[in-house]
Amino acid sequence: MSTGNMNLTLKVWRQKNNNAKGALVDYKLADISPDMSFLEMFDVLNEQLINKGEEPVVFDHDCREGICGMCSMFINGRPHGPKDLVTTCQLHMRSFKDGDTIVVEPWRAAAFPVVKDLTVDRSAFDRVIAAGGFISVNTGNAQDANNLPIPKMQADAAFEAAACIGCGACVATCKNASAMLFVSAKISQLALLPQGQPERYRRVQSMVAQMDAEGFGNCTNTGACEAECPKGISLENIARMNRDFASAKFISEETV
Amino acid sequence: MSDINSNIPEGELTSKWTKYKSSVPLVNPSNKRTIEVIIVGSGLAGASAAATLAEMGYKVKCFCFQDSPRRAHSIAAQGGINAAKNYQNDGDSVYRLFYDTIKGGDYRAREANVHRLAEVSANIIDQCVAQGVPLAREYGGLLDNRSFGGTQVQRTFYAAGQTGQQLLLGAYSALERQIGMGKVEMYTRHEMLEVVKVDGKARGIIARNLITGEIERHFGHAVVLGTGGYGNVFYLSTNAMGSNVTAAWKAHKQGAYFANPCYTQIHPTCIPVSGDHQSKLTLMSESLRNDGRIWVPKKKDDNRKASEIPEDERDYYLERRYPAFGNLVPRDVASRAAKERCDAGYGVGASKLAVYLDFKANTERYGKIEASKAGNHNPDKETCMRLGTAVIKEKYGNLFDMYAQITGENPYETPMRIYPAVHYTMGGLWVDYNLMTSVPGLYCTGEANFSDHGANRLGASALMQGLADGYFVLPYTIGAYLSKEISVKAIPTDHPAFVEAEERAVGILNTLINIKGTKSVDHFHKRLGHIMWEKCGMARNEKGLNEAIQEIRALRAEFWSDVRVPGTADELNTELEKAGRVADFIELGELMCIDALNRNESCGGHFREEYQTEEGEALRDDENYAYVAAWEFKEGVNFELHKEELKFENIKVAQRSYK
């Protein structure tokens, strides 16, 4: 099985379903290799649980390459664990020491209800995008791509905002459970591009309205979201969104 | 020799699609509103089709097993997307993209489909840019391109090393827009478990709500599967953990032929396996071969560090064997060449199952250019490396970070260690020119079908095909079928066909739960993967394949008597989900070996050791095997072969050469 020599104590949040009461449960793990990813360490735990006839810990994960945004563990009080700019699936056990105790909890936010164990429901994010996180262009309507030159700096800035993976770490770490970093990243991506201009002010109003309706908290400029974001999404996006939101009240002819 | 009809339109290759598009029957807007289409999968092929069909006015239901359509595995595609734009003025054209794709596929793809793909490729870039997809640009504000394997032009559009993510988020936005308008009903965390057929036509699906375990029946006038590839049959692959064959396999068991299952793509540049705990493999994009040189030491079992091996003791074996394409030979060729060197004892790293991918020469070259731009025409080496590293960082930063994260090594200082790994499956459900399977009303798009890549896919062509199918092909071709279905009223889901399909699905779930054996699902999956990789992997032979078939049959029997699935079927149960998928992978594994055994030739990703040239290149047998092998599922787990002859009327079939 595992080839390493780390011994660990895990305290893992177990909760049967949304209505059940959850609790931290202790597990001991031996012979963990420092080359394992954090999720592979959970694979080892689950294999042990299954072999003992117990139910494995349910956690979200898919690509295990840090891009799908599905993994979502709150590790020792930090979303995606102790390292900056990585997702849980890219966190490796060499970031921990033999003998460590590691506490693993789900994302906690009113808008992200727990589904089971470490899995939460992040569908609120999809609904915020559905409210306006797009450019209204039907298939087949596009002009030749190079008919619309976009300055490289601007394109790069849009790309940096677009790098958001929608994992929800920003919400999980925020004391207000605010989704401003996520929402502003999408708003910024489209506001920075010429294609996004026609719907710019309508978009910011609808997305912010949906964000509020989902029960996400407000932003108090703590900056934890930026510090914990695995993709380094910048707080500047929130400032840009706020400017657009304020401007929308004056500029936009349509109020949403 | 064909006994199946691919429904390729008559006429000149270059005008087939144009003519087809303008003559395909249409469905009028008021009828579209009552026609329902089910789309399973929300990756590039599924999301783009769902959004486009909804824009056209159809009632669409879309399903994905992830918690959001944005997480489909297309998101992980790194390097780029091909399009015949000729923005670089390097002689590219629709014909060249067509030709490169047919040749790259080792003359085992259908000419008409590939030409259509090349024709619509340019529209995809236009569409994505209009959606706000931030593709890479030059300082003049125009789109940038880079090179990929198997071509001599620069036609690959990209967004750093996250092209798949950006394209998928574009399609996802389009899809969410339709969801917001109520034109698409989205079912996340749902898994399709059965296709429902009424009077021989696909009329719906049975899906399991993965949160509650509830079994649901959904009607559709037509069903589209955009459910991705089956690389996880090998257990270790670059696919996401959840990627599976279940939807395609259930369709196969309901009569959809499975074509060329043995064509699997082993990608040459992946991070090597580090231990038994490994759960998946990570790709290092093919775009890195633009600027990286692949080498091994000239001396066998050389244990020196890469930096201690002088230039003249390095073997740049791709440049040596293939001077015309060098490090940019197609994936199958590059993978086999790496395996050959490692098998011969020249591999590097602790496991000796790795080769170097070295960026030093190009870092220095870029540095020189940057220094020169700044007016320094005689820069020292250190300056060159410093400036060049910044260029490399901008191009591939996220990939280098990922490498460092996984291996604990700094790739800016030491060469990457890489080894081939399972990445993509060219095989899939057989479809005709309309992308319809052999079950009427059941369509298949993207990686899940077999249609465009022959025996080997060229880099940056998967994104192209997924979006071509979803945005520009299926929305037209499905009209040919639906135009005849306008008088069909929605079939109530208490119809016996739905009841029966649900019983099949529930029967399997209950059986799995009640086996209560001693071994975990992963245990069986790993064993299956081991058999597949050893005997149906990068190199195959008759003896090994025959052994593999016996071993897989034994494994199947053991699985169904000894697997342990904890928990119940009426809750979120990830082990139950995996068990159903592994059960299907085991059956598919057997078919892959049968197909590989049937194909007594080597072509593309299918390399039979008995059939190679003196230089170790794949040796095709065009006389006997220029056909698509389309397998029909038969009672028990048996398969009957049907053949679709491949006719090459526009390209001269030749021994593939990249020398």
From TrEMBL, chain A:
<dbReference type="InterPro" id="IPR025192">
    <property type="entry name" value="Succ_DH/fum_Rdtase_N"/>
</dbReference>
<protein>
    <submittedName>
        <fullName>Fumarate reductase</fullName>
    </submittedName>
</protein>
<dbReference type="InterPro" id="IPR050573">
    <property type="entry name" value="SDH/FRD_Iron-Sulfur"/>
</dbReference>
<feature type="domain" description="4Fe-4S ferredoxin-type">
    <location>
        <begin position="155"/>
        <end position="185"/>
    </location>
</feature>
<comment type="similarity">
    <text>Belongs to the succinate dehydrogenase/fumarate reductase iron-sulfur protein family.</text>
</comment>
<dbReference type="InterPro" id="IPR009051">
    <property type="entry name" value="Helical_ferredxn"/>
</dbReference>
<dbReference type="GO" id="GO:0051537">
    <property type="term" value="F:2 iron, 2 sulfur cluster binding"/>
</dbReference>
<dbReference type="GO" id="GO:0009060">
    <property type="term" value="P:aerobic respiration"/>
</dbReference>
<dbReference type="InterPro" id="IPR036010">
    <property type="entry name" value="2Fe-2S_ferredoxin-like_sf"/>
</dbReference>
<dbReference type="Pfam" id="PF13183">
    <property type="entry name" value="Fer4_8"/>
</dbReference>
<dbReference type="GO" id="GO:0022904">
    <property type="term" value="P:respiratory electron transport chain"/>
</dbReference>
<dbReference type="InterPro" id="IPR012675">
    <property type="entry name" value="Beta-grasp_dom_sf"/>
</dbReference>
<dbReference type="InterPro" id="IPR017896">
    <property type="entry name" value="4Fe4S_Fe-S-bd"/>
</dbReference>
<dbReference type="GO" id="GO:0009055">
    <property type="term" value="F:electron transfer activity"/>
</dbReference>
<dbReference type="InterPro" id="IPR006058">
    <property type="entry name" value="2Fe2S_fd_BS"/>
</dbReference>
<dbReference type="Pfam" id="PF13085">
    <property type="entry name" value="Fer2_3"/>
</dbReference>
